[in-house]
């Protein structure tokens, strides 16, 4: 096993992105954490608030919000699902990721480590990270700020031995007792007899040493991903331009994709809600729905649709907080990557789905649709508009059939483009006219009947037509028919 630890020492401050600098978070009139500007002025954790203000009168102070910190930690756990589903939350400020099974997928331990740390920073958190074969060793290394990966269990005594006892999360009485022994580093402790340590410090401390070195098992409870995804993000400042919401929205989308990857699922729809500034004239949240032609968990694909929608989205008022909701995940198994590393969205169904989604985002959902063949002999009824999702391989309704399933007996040629309503043509000496006389090349093909819907509004009804393929004086190939009412143009061949 290989454990990657993300320790977030500034999490109490990072959950308040709008706090001006210099700033600090306090609990019971004592400083919990301060930003860099306050720290340079002497504001350190544990300092009384009155003393902090004496050092820095302009210090902005915020009471610690443990519930908000817990929400941020679980949101980060969902985001980490992009890399592994084996995640442990250690409140209030630590996350454990078991990444041994992810090394080959992400190019090795070093590349994976750097990618996770960089991604965590993109989510708005500055971690102290470490990588080790046991979870407790990784925690101790992270607490001490040692970010050099340790991949070999045999290196643990040396790597842990360099750590000062002051950097470990040990009880105060243990620190005092070990100092009385003359121990200043973990190497000094490891040289002491285990039996004597057990008598003086108790079996729990010695068992922790054994777990850190890998001599005892150290099972950890796994984080259980929620059934539905509902996350929100407070903005550091009011935003009035919809495009400016893209950065924060993409943070939430990365978290959503991690949640989907850990669950092996995809989504066909997700919902953004933009909450406006509070006041006497509070507006309801503005809703933005993202729809997809087929279930997906591709961050690039979802983000592309999101940005397209934002480009044509107008906010009725400034936004202070955004939330993202996905309530109906669909099973979406993994897929083997290409041998030569081509992108997954090539010339197949996914590229069609991505194109349809971009068109929907630009033109509107109601203006993009697919066509499907229907088992009907009258041309007007031989096809139906269908949802664009059917283009991505979804199951067709019973009456909608792919063209290969149709059973015509030697049908005549059919044009790709049918007019919405047949256009009446002139006639001279029995010949149809369309910018001049038409020359009939093929036909007639008789199409008749349809009495069953003659009484329905806007139905085609009972027809009796003789269809011909004709060519005009402009070399246009046309599909025309003759009925009792005369000659009509019904379609144009490509």
TrEMBL record:
<dbReference type="GO" id="GO:0006281">
    <property type="term" value="P:DNA repair"/>
</dbReference>
<dbReference type="InterPro" id="IPR043502">
    <property type="entry name" value="DNA/RNA_pol_sf"/>
</dbReference>
<protein>
    <submittedName>
        <fullName>DNA polymerase Y family protein</fullName>
    </submittedName>
</protein>
<keyword id="KW-0227">DNA damage</keyword>
<dbReference type="InterPro" id="IPR050356">
    <property type="entry name" value="SulA_CellDiv_inhibitor"/>
</dbReference>
């Amino acid at each position: 096993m290989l454990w990657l630890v993300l320790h977030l020492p500034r999490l109490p401050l990072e959950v308040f992105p709008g706090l001006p600098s210099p700033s600090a978070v306090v609990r019971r009139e004592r400083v919990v954490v301060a930003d860099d500007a306050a720290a340079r002025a002497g504001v350190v954790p544990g300092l009384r608030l009155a003393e902090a203000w004496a050092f820095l009168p302009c210090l902005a102070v915020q009471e610690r919000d443990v519930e908000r910190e817990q929400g941020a930690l679980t949101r980060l756990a969902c985001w980490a699902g992009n890399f592994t589903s084996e995640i442990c939350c250690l409140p209030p400020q630590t996350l454990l990721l078991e990444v041994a099974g992810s090394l080959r997928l992400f190019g090795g331990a070093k590349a994976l480590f750097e990618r996770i740390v960089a991604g965590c920073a993109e989510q708005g958190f500055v971690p102290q990270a470490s990588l080790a074969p046991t979870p407790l060793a990784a925690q101790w290394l992270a607490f001490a700020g040692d970010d050099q990966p340790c991949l070999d269990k045999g290196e643990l005594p040396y790597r842990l031995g360099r750590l000062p006892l002051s950097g470990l999360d040990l009880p105060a009485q243990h620190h005092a007792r070990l100092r009385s022994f003359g121990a200043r580093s973990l190497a000094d402790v490891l040289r002491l007899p285990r039996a004597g340590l057990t008598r003086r410090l108790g079996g729990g401390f010695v068992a922790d040493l054994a777990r850190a070195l890998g001599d005892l098992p150290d099972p950890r409870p796994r984080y259980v991903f929620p059934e539905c995804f509902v996350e929100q993000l407070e903005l550091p400042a009011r935003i009035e331009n919809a495009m400016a919401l893209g950065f924060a929205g993409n943070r939430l989308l990365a978290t959503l994709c991690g949640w989907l990857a850990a669950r092996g699922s995809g989504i066909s729809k997700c919902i953004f809600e933009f909450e406006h500034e509070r006041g006497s004239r509070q507006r309801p949240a503005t809703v933005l729905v993202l729809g997809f032609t087929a279930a997906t968990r591709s961050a690039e694909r979802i983000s592309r649709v999101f940005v397209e929608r934002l480009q044509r989205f107008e906010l009725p008022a400034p936004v202070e907080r955004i939330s993202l909701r996905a309530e109906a995940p669909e099973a979406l198994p993994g897929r083997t990557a290409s041998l030569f590393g081509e992108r997954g969205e090539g010339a197949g169904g996914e590229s069609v789905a991505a194109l349809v989604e971009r068109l929907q985002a630009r033109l509107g959902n109601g203006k993009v649709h697919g066509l499907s063949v229907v088992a009907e002999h009258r041309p007007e009824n031989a096809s139906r508009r269908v949802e664009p999702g059917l283009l991505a391989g979804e199951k067709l309704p019973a009456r909608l059939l792919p063209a290969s399933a149709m059973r015509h007996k030697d049908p005549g040629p059919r044009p790709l483009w049918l007019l919405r309503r047949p256009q009446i043509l002139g006639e001279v000496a029995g010949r149809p006219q369309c910018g001049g006389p038409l020359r009939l090349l093929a036909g007639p093909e008789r199409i008749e009947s349809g009495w069953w819907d003659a009484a329905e509004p806007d139905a085609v009804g009972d027809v009796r037509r003789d269809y011909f393929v004709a060519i005009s004086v402009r070399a246009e190939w046309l599909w025309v028919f003759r009925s009792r009412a005369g000659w009509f143009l019904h379609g144009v061949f490509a």
